[in-house]
Design a protein that fits this description.
Length: 307
């Protein structure tokens, strides 16, 4: 994991339970003699997230509506720290901090995890967009309940299913970075089949009614055409905003998607593309980032905005 990621080591369950006693009932002994939770149990996964967010990010109250995505915190932190390094290359090797760094979280969901990490670790300011009103209401409640998020996280509803930036980015508004955790699957059936495979990998039997251990509503998990189609739209719709966004980025779950993404980026005229590989346990994933600005324009941007 990234060297600034505090989750690189194994979970310290006694420490996590001290921070959040509600985790205790879910902690059991593993076959190897150490402590763990049942990662196939959605309630256990949520309790772990609550403890992690409280211990490492000062979040006193965190919850999500039933069935909404409960993301793995270590992987989300890795993404943000690697993205921060992109900005640091234009800032003397130091990550720019404070409210002057403006980040757009595309599809913030109900969990608000990227803004939680980014505001705590770097003091950044976020806009979170989503098409789901229940998710946005959840984020507003989280922001209101946690003073560290106050004044740093704004939510905006996307009212058009095919638009990503239109209706969200205001005229003349600028963003130093966009982040996105796109829906990976092409259908609900594909998402459920993938979850069944994950459940079997966790040693759980196949069930007639699969339970999504990390949750996820339809707009969080699947999109017509899958990850490739969503990211293609993301790339194409990023072009007009090239002068007003320094770095666009997205998580890419499937390495098989990369060749087509590179094709879309070349066709769109991206001037620089970076692929950041990440490994979390046995899972390999990657972030693809791109910009439409020349090196000279990038440096002028940093000088103007991050004084």
């Amino acid at each position: 994991m990234h060297p600034r990621n505090p989750h690189a080591d194994r979970y310290d369950f006694p420490q996590l339970i001290a921070a959040s006693p509600a985790l205790a009932p879910f902690v059991t002994a593993s076959p190897h003699g150490d402590q763990t939770i049942d990662f196939a149990n959605p309630a256990a996964v949520k309790a772990l997230n609550q403890a992690l967010l409280k211990q490492f990010y000062g979040v006193q109250l965190w919850d999500i509506p039933a069935g909404y995505l409960c993301p793995p915190i270590p992987g989300r932190a890795d993404y943000l720290h690697h993205a921060a390094d992109l900005l640091a290359t234009l800032h003397g090797g130091t990550v720019p901090r404070g409210k002057q760094v403006h980040v757009l979280d595309i599809g913030i969901g109900a969990n608000c995890v990227y803004p939680i990490i980014g505001t705590h670790d770097y003091g950044w300011r976020f806009v979170g967009s989503d098409i789901d009103l229940v998710a946005l209401k959840s984020v507003k409640m989280l922001v209101a309940a946690n003073p560290g998020l106050s004044g740093r996280v704004e939510v905006r509803q996307q009212t058009h299913a095919n638009y990503i930036f239109d209706g969200i980015v205001k005229p003349r508004e600028e963003f130093d970075l966009t982040v996105c955790n796109p829906p990976f699957h092409a259908s609900e059936e594909e998402a459920l089949a993938a979850n069944q495979r994950k459940t079997r990998n966790l040693g759980q039997p196949r069930t007639a009614e699969p339970v999504l251990n990390f949750g996820g509503r339809n707009t969080e998990l699947w999109y017509t055409g899958g990850e490739e189609a969503f990211v293609r739209n993301l790339v194409e719709q990023s072009v007009p905003l090239g002068p007003r966004v320094l770095w666009f980025s997205t998580l890419i779950s499937k390495k098989e998607t990369l060749p087509s993404i590179y094709h879309f980026l070349k066709k769109a005229g991206a001037l620089e593309v970076k692929t950041i590989d990440m490994t979390h346990g046995q899972k390999a994933t990657r972030v693809v980032a791109w910009t439409f600005q020349t090196p000279e324009q990038q440096q002028a941007w940093a000088t103007r905005r991050w004084k």
